[in-house]
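Weekly puzzle thread! Below is a chain. First person to post its structure in token form gets bragging rights.
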Amino acid sequence: MSFSTLVRRVENELERRIDAGIESEGRLSQAMRYAVFNGGKRLRPLLVYACGETLDLPVERLDAPACAVELIHCYSLVHDDLPAMDDDDLRRGRPTTHLAYDEATAILAGDALQALAFQVLAQDGRLHHQSPAGCGMIAELASACGVSGMAGGQARDLELEHKQPDQATVETMFRMKTGALIRAAVMMPTALAPDLPSTQIQALREFGEEIGLAFQIRDDLLDVEGKTEVIGKQAGADQALGKANWPELFGIEGARRRIDELDARARAALDRVERDTSGLHKLADRLLHRAT
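Winning reply:
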């Protein structure tokens, strides 16, 4: 399937699962929908589908992990935008959730989206007959969310404000804050392929890790070079907040070279998978050469 077809598919699946997971209409449910259906590129669900295609998995068995990883991503953006975190007022060209509603509702909407992500995985009937697979996906996603993933990475990001960390420190934070969820999107489908050799599992993990780090460096470049009306969020926000921005710390040309290095390492990892990885290669291009 084309990427556009898969985006429509996950949009429809998200609609269906959010409707099923919300028992009543109200301000909270409206805020949840506002946070999810806001023009996102759905890159993480696309990684789930692309990896599943590499592993010859039926697309319908990938819907639950694709939805779950996007729900986690949307929850993380709601919380990252809060005044206590990055204090952003624009997300994908619209007011951030806490401005469109209020801070308390935004916090609760993020909490509810995180819970719904795990509910989607736990209740999907197409995973029940492979309970170890479902548990593996839940474990992978939970690890990406927690202290060794997004939450821990965000904490380190806050600690590094107005400091001059070295490259290794910044990249460790990036791998946690952003890369962990991208890695999880690649790894979750492997739980549905129990006969996949460990060497190929490791190769896919390396691809996810390298592309995740490169993705965040590209994001930092967009913050420095992009225009607010194009990237859909306030350009230059990292500098204003004293954030550990890769090109601000180590140079724009250095950032481009580093993205190229990580891209080459990610593609070399795919070469070890010994399957059709064309979809993952195409998606890597989309992730690392995006303008928004």
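Puzzle host: Confirmed. Bonus trivia for everyone else. The two ends are 23 Å apart (CA to CA).
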